[in-house]
Amino acid sequence: MHNLCVAHRGSSYSAPENTLAAFRQAMEFPFVKWIELDVQLSRDSVPVVIHDFSLERTTNGTGLVRDKSWDELRRLDAGSWKSLRYRGEPIPSLVEVLDLCKGKVHLNIELKTTGDMYPGLEREVLRLIISRGMEQDVVLTSFDQQALRRVKELMPGIGTGLITDIRPADLSTRLSSLGCSFLSMAYPKIDAKLMTEMTKQGVAVMAWTADQAGAIRRLVSLHPDLMICTNRPETWDQAVNGTSLLGNTLLTIKRWLIR
């Protein structure tokens, strides 16, 4: 087995999603080789790491991300909603995440946009990736096909991937026309036939988001190259390798002791 474990928004079952705390926890697991995260723009065009277009679910703020300056966003509490242990955990900027992860894990950076919601998003994200020399360490993904086209116009050599929760009949053609070498698909839609087709096309596939051991084991059985995205990397060893939970339990205790 050499399926790659991708931590969805970091170790987001145990820590507040899309925060440095969640990313640090994910990187404690040696089998986590990729982290998935979401990027939007602040009002003053700073790439920030947050999933929702609005602030209410994962912060103590209100309103839309795009209406707030970076200075306003960085002052928000993005941790207390998950647990009081994470009170004061901030929304990170993309550059903070790049600096944390460089040389340690690869990043699947989802461009959270639709239409002309975030003019310049692709350019700003690429600028930071290039400034850190991480062009080979990332893939830029999106539901928005226009965003993927803009990325390729700006930097043809960067890896890009389409995100989809459906399986269209023209999927192979669509990926080819977009220049995508990566497919991020809802895991119930993935089967062995799809994996054979994508492998022949040279497209890497990531399944999202599987948290139950049975679902992870089914995905592993489909193809050794299928990447599996999970909110719960702490269950990976047990689900995939059938190992004991003791190691993960000790790691959890260690985290409590150092906080």
Structural account:
It comes from Paenibacillus zeirhizosphaerae. There is one protein chain. This protein has 259 residues and is an alpha/beta fold. It is built from 10 helices and 9 strands. The protein has an 8-stranded parallel β-barrel with strand order 1-2-4-5-6-7-8-9, surrounded by 6 helices. Helix 1 (20-27) runs parallel beside helix 3 (94-101). The two termini are 34 Å apart. The model has no long low-confidence stretch (mean pLDDT 94).
Question: What structural category arises from helix and sheet content?
Answer: alpha/beta
Number of helices: 10
Percentage of residues in helical conformation: 25-40%
**Rough outline:** globular
Largest sheet properties: 8 strands, parallel, barrel
List how many beta strands DSSP finds. Answer: 9
CATH class: Alpha Beta
Number of domains: 1
> Element order, helices and strands?
EHEEHHEHEHEHEHEHEHH
Organism: Paenibacillus zeirhizosphaerae
Protein name: Glycerophosphodiester phosphodiesterase family protein
Pfam families: GDPD
InterPro entries: GP_PDE_dom, PLC-like_Pdiesterase_TIM-brl
SSE topology:
Elements: E1 5-8, H1 20-27, E2 32-41, E3 47-49, H2 70-74, H3 94-101, E4 106-111, H4 121-131, E5 138-142, H5 145-154, E6 160-164, H6 171-178, E7 182-186, H7 192-201, E8 204-208, H8 213-222, E9 227-230, H9 236-241, H10 246-257
Parallel strand pairs: 1-2, 1-9, 2-4, 4-5, 5-6, 6-7, 7-8, 8-9
Antiparallel strand pairs: 2-3
Helix pairs in contact: 1-3
